Amino acid sequence: MSYKITFKIFVKEVEEPIFTVKKNSTISLDSLMETIKKHKPEVFTIFKDDDILKLWKVSDEEIPHLFNNTTTKMEEITAQNIESNVSQQHVNVYVQPVSENKFEFCIPCMKYISATTKSQHNKSVTHKENESIANITEEESQQSGKELVITIVNQAERLGFHLNKFSSWLISISTELLPTQSSEYWINSYVTDYVLENANFWDENSLPRDWLLKCFDITEETADIIINQVSEEYLKKQSPLYWIQNWIKQQTNQPSPEFLTFIENAKENALCYYQGALYSRPIYVVDKRPDIKETNEINHLLATEFGQQTNESSLFYHTTNIYGAERIITQGIDFGECNRRQDFGGTTVSYYLNDNFKRAIEFGRHRYIKSCAIIVYYIPVTLLEQHDHLDLGEDNNKWKKVVHRSRSGLSNEVDDYDSAYGPQATNGAKLLNDPNLTLKASVGKNQLAIKTRKLSKKVDSNIVGVIIYRN
User: Which domain of life is it from (predicted)?
Assistant: First the structure.
């Protein structure tokens, strides 16, 4: 939701501003700091009158009667990130101390005005020798760090986060530090900083939507989208924290226009090849939802020259979205896209594959309501045996111990291996809420976890092909 904000200047019945400074002029930093300390870094209201920026400390109770028909509109600015609970007649300004000689005034989601120390040797300085000078300029407000703040806030709003709390958190981070990380990183950091312990499990007495809203400061619309993009059955197999982090990843990482065009123009039920692929492997596009009753698409890949060299017992499948498919096809397995605290890895991440095509289809139907893709790999047991491989398929007690510690975020023996194989847990997401929970293994649902780069590089070259469900 966007609002058009109007800055207004009072014509009468207004107290003197806390201070007034013309753009491109200088004021004593000592005076500025004294003023800020006197009024405390709370919430102020800023008004713009041509080239003059005026700052008042105004309480919410004073706002209604201060605005009346005697006000004059001075300037309109379109802002996409103003929360609905912020009056269209005023803008909150937060005073944030950055260092001993620097303060920043943040108009949340709109722009920054900085007060920074100027060299005492500057020729334009006429103050005492040891007096610091603050210079407020329009150019300074457009520095890359400040622009990045706006970009991050824009992204956070698009993801459905309430901006009052997010903006307050963001201005606590130095603008010099912000450019070192992506928007995805900072939004995830915000979630991590404010995450509640109960975000690691689902409340059986609450609707999933209501529980998400309780755990995270997001809009109702966002909660609905997150809940509705997967089946209810699969939703409970991961924690609320997993889903909010997945939502951030999904929205901040999109397929390239080139790949989307390639998929859009691909002929249905025909093998095609993507020019930017790491290895030349066929891509088979179908216009339907994945269906376990119709699995003929895999036969087209197995009929290729490389596919004919494989055998069914050595085929593995990774189901992902379109962005994930492009990344894997063009860059190979990226462990940075994998999640911690899954079945096989407490302090390490894994790239998970199904050993049954129908199970991969079933997962795709539950996990991705819209388009998805299945990457088909040929991974013979001889390849796994050339590396450190842990088979958890026969020892149920060892499997329980590994999954229990992995889901709890604790190191265990699987973290030392290049790969691991064993059943999927049906109730692993409930462990954090109930540490004494008895884990249950899925019957007939096994998974292979690739855990190291030295193995994943070889697995990358063993892609048989890709099936994209375009619907």
Answer: Eukaryota
